[in-house]
Specification:
It is a single chain. Helix 3 runs antiparallel to helix 4. It contains five helices and five strands; from the N terminus they run E-H-H-E-E-H-H-E-H-E.
Length: 103
């Protein structure tokens, strides 16, 4: 799986940042996932599939449905520490819980 950063997605789609934000919000482009606090990324195959959807002549509603399916399939586990992970004594005693979190 190849990961794309925002500038790469903008280049592939031939759009500006504002359009990417608006299309993501309206379900016309897959949602990004977080690599860090300020780093968003997309799965390359999802973006390439989106381009194929546009080229196929599908209606806006059909594209939005397909993008919703992509977003639903991209759920990732979200881990949380019950105790503070910053204290070294507590790290070994911390309980980790996992839940599914969709972007």
């Amino acid at each position: 799986m190849k990961i794309l950063r925002k500038h790469q997605v903008l280049e592939l789609l031939g759009i500006c940042s504002t359009t990417l934000f608006n299309w993501t919000k309206s379900g016309m482009v897959p949602k990004p996932f977080k690599l860090g606090l300020r780093i968003s990324a997309w799965v390359e195959s999802d973006i390439l599939h989106t381009i194929k959807l546009y080229k196929s002549g599908m209606s806006t509603e059909q594209i939005q449905h397909e993008i919703n399916v992509i977003n639903a399939n991209n759920c990732t586990p979200k881990f949380q520490f019950e105790n503070s992970p910053h204290a070294t004594e507590q790290k070994s005693q911390s309980k980790v819980t996992s839940e599914t979190s969709c972007r």
